[in-house]
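Figure 6 in text form: structure in, sequence out.
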């Protein structure tokens, strides 16, 4: 049994049954890892057992400790601190745990649950390129998906592309006015960047047209609403929904440019999807749901023709589902997409990875689907994450003040290259291998820095801090793995083989094996919390613990069974680091 907590819990329950003649509920056997300031490996809390023993905490702990030492060979000794029984487990036990971990190719992957979980992430708009905020979304969505797979679920990774709406029409209209027919090839830029430039251009044109209206006494909001260019964009959206051939042709062309750009960014990030949905294909299904809701009396139509859901009795507000001109809103297509997905996959849970500014949206989505009679609405879970901010503040897409994803990926590569070359250890590495290493380090730094923060927290991103080879960073974990692989290569060249043996273990070795053995429980904990940050910080703790062990303890300079045992321990650490960082989407180099 690789989990010492489970092992000791079973033995403690047997001790209580033998000593006091009764079996107690498992909830009364409270076992935890011993605190570092006390001697021992596992600790039994005796207070829940006092009604059964009818004795003081100290006497109860001592009796259970005596029984365990007499009847369980793996118990090496114990001490009692008030009502806490601290037990030391034998070297043979820990050697056995290490052997099980090292020989299990699926260690850390939990048994299949039979549950299907759908994870929606990315969900970009086709009016701009991906930026730093999208990167957090993509990396979080990917790692949550990998985490839930490790928890034994069948996971469907999906992307909903927001390829229609007023924001798309803004880019299209600005291109018509100012683009002079330019293409990405002619401009020498990725298609998503070109379209994003015209989205920013629309905002510039809007501001110019607003000036005289504001000077005439209108508020900014009124001026924006009454500008000719804004009315033209709204008219274009109506024409698109009516199937106007000219508008649809332009929409297809510009969206095609964007998709090609997105695909390049996804490939650079190591992101892929099992299914991609398009709002342009799902909003009509949403309109059907709205019509059904009207027929059932769940929704209502106002005098101007717009359709609403009244949720005031539920403590919320009224929600617009169709505008007065008949065009749909985000909520409309989300209704249709959700129903289509359930019909296709019959999921047990659907996780929407979307920023916390949309908390109300998903509260409303779940409530409306429930009102319309879709029992699976309870399967909706909004993984609400905090925004990414920069030292200079928040980003604004329409003003062009964002950190572009492609630029950031390239910057991380350059930073990794500069940092690595300063260390001067790659002179004998071929150039193509160096380039691959720099990509690996740059992306590892970016991914780890973002994922290690609890998803629900707003985070401040600092590229330079993230690439540090020391401290709680991705490159530190990558370097630790490369160090272990170097040790194993040297051992292999010398004809040495990792192997378990009946040897005494140092406290640092036991501490490492304990940390390794806790990995499956960390996976379970992270899965239940939908937080890959738990795995990220576990990987750092494991790397840090190994480096301390390596600094203080010889491996290759040792001899015989002790050396072989330490090689086995090092290999097990490297293997678990690979499994943990795979959940994070981070690759580990063989050498650095």
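Output sequence:
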């Amino acid at each position: 049994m690789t989990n010492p907590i489970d092992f000791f819990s079973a033995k403690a329950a047997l001790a209580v049954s033998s000593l006091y003649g009764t079996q107690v509920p498992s909830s009364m056997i409270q076992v935890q890892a011993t605190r570092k300031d006390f001697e021992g490996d596992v600790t039994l809390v005796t207070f829940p057992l006092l009604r059964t023993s009818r004795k003081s905490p100290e006497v109860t702990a001592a009796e259970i400790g005596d029984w365990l030492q007499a009847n369980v060979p793996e118990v090496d000794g114990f001490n009692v601190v008030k009502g806490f029984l601290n037990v030391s487990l034998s070297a043979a036990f820990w050697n056995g745990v290490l052997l099980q971990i090292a020989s299990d190719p699926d260690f850390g992957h939990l048994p299949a649950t039979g549950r299907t979980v759908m994870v929606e992430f990315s969900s970009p708009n086709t009016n701009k390129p991906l930026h730093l905020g999208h990167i957090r979304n993509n990396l979080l969505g990917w790692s949550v998906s990998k985490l839930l797979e490790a928890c034994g679920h069948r996971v469907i990774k999906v992307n909903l592309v927001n390829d229609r709406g007023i924001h798309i029409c803004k880019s299209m209209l600005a291109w018509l006015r100012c683009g002079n027919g330019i293409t990405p090839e002619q401009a020498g830029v990725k298609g998503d960047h070109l379209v994003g430039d015209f989205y920013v251009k629309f905002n510039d044109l809007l501001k110019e047209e607003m000036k005289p209206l504001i000077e005439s006494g209108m508020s900014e909001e009124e001026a924006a609403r009454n500008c000719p260019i804004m009315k033209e964009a709204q008219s274009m959206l109506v024409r698109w929904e009516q199937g106007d051939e000219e508008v649809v042709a332009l929409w297809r062309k510009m969206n095609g440019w964007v998709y090609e750009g997105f695909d390049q960014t996804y490939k650079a990030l190591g992101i892929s999807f099992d299914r991609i949905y398009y709002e342009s294909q799902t909003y009509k299904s949403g309109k059907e749901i709205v019509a059904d809701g009207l027929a059932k009396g769940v929704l209502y139509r106002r005098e101007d023709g717009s359709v609403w859901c009244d949720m005031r009795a539920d403590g919320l507000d009224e929600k617009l589902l169709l505008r007065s001109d008949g065009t749909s809103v985000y909520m409309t297509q989300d209704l249709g997409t959700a129903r289509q997905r359930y019909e296709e996959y019959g999921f047990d849970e659907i996780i929407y990875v979307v920023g916390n500014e949309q908390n109300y949206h998903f509260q409303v989505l779940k409530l409306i689907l429930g009102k319309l009679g879709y029992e699976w609405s309870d399967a909706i879970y909004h993984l609400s994450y905090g925004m990414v901010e920069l030292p200079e503040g928040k980003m604004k897409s329409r003003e062009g003040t964002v950190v572009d994803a492609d630029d950031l990926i390239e910057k991380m590569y350059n930073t990794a290259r500069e940092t690595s070359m300063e260390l001067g250890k790659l002179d004998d590495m071929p150039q193509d291998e160096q380039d691959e290493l720099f990509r690996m380090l740059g992306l590892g730094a970016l991914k780890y820095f973002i994922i290690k923060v609890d998803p629900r927290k707003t985070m401040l991103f600092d590229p330079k801090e993230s690439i540090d080879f020391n401290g709680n960073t991705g490159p530190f974990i990558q370097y630790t793995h490369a160090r272990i692989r170097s040790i194993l290569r040297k051992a292999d060249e010398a004809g040495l083989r990792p192997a378990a043996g009946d040897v005494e273990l140092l406290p640092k070795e036991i501490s490492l094996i304990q940390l390794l053995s806790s990995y499956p429980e960390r996976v379970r904990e992270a899965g239940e919390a939908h937080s890959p940050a738990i795995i990220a910080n576990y990987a750092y703790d494991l790397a840090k613990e190994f480096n301390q062990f390596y600094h203080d303890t010889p491996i290759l300079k040792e001899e015989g069974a002790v050396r072989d045992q330490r090689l086995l321990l090092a290999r097990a650490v490297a293997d678990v680091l690979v499994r943990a960082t795979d959940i994070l989407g981070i690759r580990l180099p063989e050498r650095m």
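Caption detail: DSSP finds 22 helices and 14 strands in the chain.
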